[in-house]
Amino acid sequence: MERYQTQARTISIAQGGVMRGVYGWMGGGLALTALVSLMTASSPALLQAILGNRILFYALVFGELGLVIAISGAINRISATTASALFLLYAAVNGLTMSSIFVAYTSTSIASTFLVTSGMFCAMSLYGYLTRSDLTSWGSFLFMGLVGVVIASLVNMFLHSSMLSWVLSVCGVIVFTGLTAYDTQKIKQMGNAGRKGAVLGALTLYLDFINMFLSMLRLFGDRR
């Protein structure tokens, strides 16, 4: 019995260490995104260069997608330093594209939505970490929901339907709220995966948070 308790404590300590690393990198990534976004929004010339040039804007968007694929797909082949650098680069590039929200929404609604999203994220991540329920069954449902949101969003780029946009935002909040708990539990179960594992976990939760935030902003943000 004592041996079992010792093993349980060892596992718990290891899991706590992993999650501290994940949250540390995620927090750093979010701070970098916010800093770059604010600096870009405060520079009319830079903002015009990004938002006024659709080719550049979409190049940045696809560049972000490429970075996510590179980190996720090559995590076992690249060094921890490279993985960290790519994650920070992604966070910075995302800050450039997210500067557009300061044009579309008031600063007050952005700040209030960020606080609400932070509370929701913390609550769901804490649930995913502490619950004894196996959330594996959520995976297929959430993945199908994510695919549906992505496909419908691409279609709506041509339809420009405000109703469909509203529905997608509601679905986005639901899907990414669920993914926060699901992904947290998956990351917790990784064990001691080192810095590369912490960076990959941070990227996963970073994406959950950003997408939840944007969905909430589209629903409740005050437009300029």
TrEMBL record:
Question: Is Ion transport a UniProt keyword of this protein?
Answer: no
| TM annotation in the entry | 21-43, 55-75, 87-105, 111-129, 141-159, 165-185, 197-220
Q: What GO cellular component is one of the record's annotations? A: plasma membrane
Q: Does the keyword Transmembrane helix apply?
A: yes
**Where is the protein found, in the record's own terms?**
Membrane
Q: Which InterPro entries match?
A: Bax_inhibitor_1-related
Topology in membrane: Multi-pass membrane protein
Its keywords, alphabetically, are:
Membrane, Transmembrane, Transmembrane helix
Question: Could you say which protein family the record assigns here?
Answer: Belongs to the BI1 family.
Q: What PANTHER family does its record include?
A: BAX INHIBITOR-RELATED, PROTEIN LIFEGUARD 4
UniProt-recorded name of the protein: BAX inhibitor (BI)-1/YccA family protein
Query: Which species?
Result: Citrifermentans bemidjiense (strain ATCC BAA-1014 / DSM 16622 / JCM 12645 / Bem) (Geobacter bemidjiensis)
Q: What is the lineage of its organism?
A: Bacteria, Pseudomonadati, Thermodesulfobacteriota, Desulfuromonadia, Geobacterales
